[in-house]
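Support request from a user on the community tier.

User writes: "When I paste my C-alpha cells into the form, the page sometimes reloads and wipes my input. The last time it worked, I copied everything first. Here is what I submitted, just in case something in the input itself triggers the reload:"
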C-alpha cells in the first residue's frame, strides 16, 4: 500500500490516464512502493516533478508493419518503440516479437529497463519495442520480410547515440541479422553499435548469448554467499523456460555445482531427477526449434507434464523463473516455499506477481528481482556497443569477467541501498532505490525539458 502522498498522487494519475494498462500499473506500483523512503527524504523530487516525468515515456512510436507470406498473402502487424528515459544515455532495450505484445507490456518492460540499465553502472537509458508478430511456424523468408518491413519504419527513430535496440522474446540472432541488414541498406552506413545481439561476424560480442543466464547465476551466487554464507554447490535447482536465459542459467548453475532437475516451455515441463542433460535441451530448442516434451522421449527416467505452471510443485533449493511475466502467482509461490526453497532469483522480466513476492519475503526466502538479477544481458549489450565503438573485440573470458564484476556490483549496490533506507534484506526495494538514485540525479541536473 502506498503511504506517501506524492507517490500516491502519481500512481492515481497513471491509473486515470491509462486504465487498461495492467502490466504497466503493476510495474509502476512496485517501484513507487520501494521509492517511498527516498521520496520522504528528498523534497526536491516533488519540486522538480521527477516522478511524473519518470513514469511517462519521453516518446512512443507506433506503426503498421505490412509483410507478405510465402503464399503471397499480405498481413499487417503493429510495431512499437517506447523510448522511456534517456537521462543517463541513449535508450537501450530489446525488441519482442510475440502475439501478446501490446503497449502496456512494452511500457512495463521499458519502465523496468530504466532502472535495470542504471544498475549496470553503464551509460544507457531505458526503452523497449516490438510487435504482435509471431515468428513461430514462419519460414526464414517470411521472418526476413517481416523484419525488413519493421526496420523500414523503425530506422527513422534509432541510432547508436539515440536508441539501441536488441533482442528479446521472439527476436534472436536470425531476426537481429535481418534487422541490421535492412538498417544498413536504408542508411548506407555500417553503424554496428545501432543494434546489439548481432552475429560474431558483424560486430557481435562473445558471451552475449550466455549473458543473461550467466549473470543471473553470478548475482544469485553473490546473494547466497553474502546473506547466507552459502553457494550453488550441492543445491537442487528448478528453472522455468527453455530459451537462451534458461539454457545458460542451467549451464552456469551446473558449473557452479548445482543439479538442475526441471525446465519448461509454454506447453509443459520436464522433470529429470538425475539432472537435466543440457546438450539434449540445446539440440531440441536451439538447433531444431522443437518442443521440450521431446526431451522425455529421449531421456529414460525423465517425465513430461502438460501445463507449465506445475513445474513449481517440484521441490528445490533455488528457483530461477526464466519464462515470462507473472508466471508465478500466489499459488505457485506457496508451492515453492513448501518445496523448501531458500532463494528465488528472477531471470525473466517481472515473473512473480506482487502477491507471490510478499509470500517469498514473509517466508524469509532470499529474493532477487528481475531488474537486478537479469541485467546481465543488457550489460553485455552495452559492452558490445563499446567494442563496436572501438572497432575491437574482447575475448570470451574478458567479457565474462566484466559481466561477473558488474553482477557482483549490482548485488552489493542494491543490498547497501536497502540497508541505507532501513529495509535490510529487501532487495526489491534496494533495486528500485539504487537504480532510481542515479536516474533522478541526472534528470534534476539536466533541468526540465
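"...and here is what came back when it finally went through:"
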Amino acid at each position: 500500500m502506498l503511504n506517501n502522498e506524492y507517490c500516491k498522487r502519481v500512481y492515481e494519475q497513471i491509473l486515470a490516464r491509462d486504465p487498461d494498462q495492467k502490466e504497466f500499473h503493476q510495474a509502476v506500483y512496485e517501484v513507487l512502493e520501494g521509492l517511498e523512503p527516498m521520496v520522504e527524504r528528498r523534497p526536491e523530487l516533488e519540486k522538480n516533478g521527477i516522478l511524473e516525468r519518470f513514469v511517462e515515456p519521453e516518446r512512443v512510436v507506433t506503426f503498421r508493419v505490412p509483410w507478405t507470406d510465402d503464399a503471397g498473402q499480405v498481413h499487417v502487424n503493429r510495431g512499437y518503440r517506447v523510448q522511456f528515459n534517456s537521462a543517463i544515455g541513449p535508450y537501450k532495450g530489446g525488441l519482442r516479437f510475440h502475439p501478446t505484445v501490446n503497449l502496456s507490456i512494452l511500457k512495463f518492460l521499458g519502465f523496468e529497463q530504466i532502472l535495470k540499465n542504471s544498475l549496470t553502472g553503464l551509460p544507457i537509458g531505458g526503452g523497449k519495442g516490438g510487435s504482435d508478430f509471431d515468428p513461430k511456424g514462419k519460414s526464414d523468408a517470411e521472418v526476413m520480410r517481416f523484419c525488413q518491413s519493421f526496420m523500414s519504419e523503425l530506422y527513422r527513430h534509432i541510432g547508436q547515440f539515440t536508441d539501441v535496440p536488441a533482442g528479446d522474446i521472439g527476436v534472436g540472432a536470425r531476426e537481429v541479422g535481418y534487422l541490421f541488414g535492412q538498417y544498413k541498406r536504408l542508411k548506407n552506413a555500417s553503424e554496428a553499435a545501432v543494434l546489439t545481439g548481432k552475429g560474431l561476424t558483424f560486430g557481435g560480442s562473445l558471451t552475449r548469448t550466455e549473458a543473461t543466464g550467466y549473470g543471473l547465476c553470478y548475482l544469485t551466487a553473490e546473494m547466497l554467499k553474502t546473506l547466507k554464507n552459502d553457494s550453488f554447490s550441492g543445491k537442487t535447482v528448478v528453472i522455468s523456460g527453455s530459451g537462451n536465459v534458461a539454457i545458460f542459467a542451467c549451464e552456469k548453475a551446473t558449473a557452479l555445482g548445482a543439479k538442475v532437475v526441471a525446465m519448461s516451455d509454454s506447453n509443459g515441463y520436464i522433470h529429470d531427477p538425475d539432472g537435466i542433460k543440457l546438450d539434449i535441451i540445446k539440440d531440441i530448442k536451439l538447433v531444431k526449434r522443437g518442443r521440450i516434451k521431446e526431451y522425455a522421449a529421449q531421456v529414460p527416467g525423465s517425465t513430461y507434464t502438460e501445463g507449465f505452471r506445475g513445474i513449481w510443485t517440484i521441490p528445490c533449493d533455488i528457483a530461477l523463473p526464466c519464462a515470462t511475466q507473472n508466471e508465478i502467482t500466489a499459488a505457485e509461490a506457496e508451492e515453492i516455499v513448501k518445496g523448501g526453497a531458500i532463494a528465488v532469483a528472477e531471470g525473466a522480466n517481472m515473473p512473480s506477481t506482487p502477491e507471490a513476492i510478499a509470500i517469498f519475503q514473509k517466508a524469509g526466502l532470499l529474493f532477487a528481482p528481475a531488474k537486478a538479477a537479469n541485467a546481465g544481458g543488457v550489460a553485455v549489450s552495452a559492452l558490445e556497443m563499446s567494442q563496436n565503438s572501438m572497432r575491437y573485440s574482447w575475448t570470451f573470458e574478458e567479457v565474462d569477467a566484466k559481466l561477473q564484476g558488474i553482477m557482483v556490483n549490482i548485488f552489493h549496490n542494491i543490498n547497501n541501498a536497502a540497508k541505507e533506507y532501513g529495509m535490510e534484506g529487501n532487495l526489491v526495494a534496494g533495486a528500485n532505490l539504487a537504480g532510481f538514485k542515479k536516474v533522478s540525479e541526472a534528470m534534476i541536473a539536466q533541468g526540465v525539458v
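Agent notes: The reload is a front-end session timeout and is unrelated to the input. The chain has three domains: 5-54, 59-189, 211-373. The CA atoms of residues 272 and 302 lie 4 Å apart. Escalated to web team.
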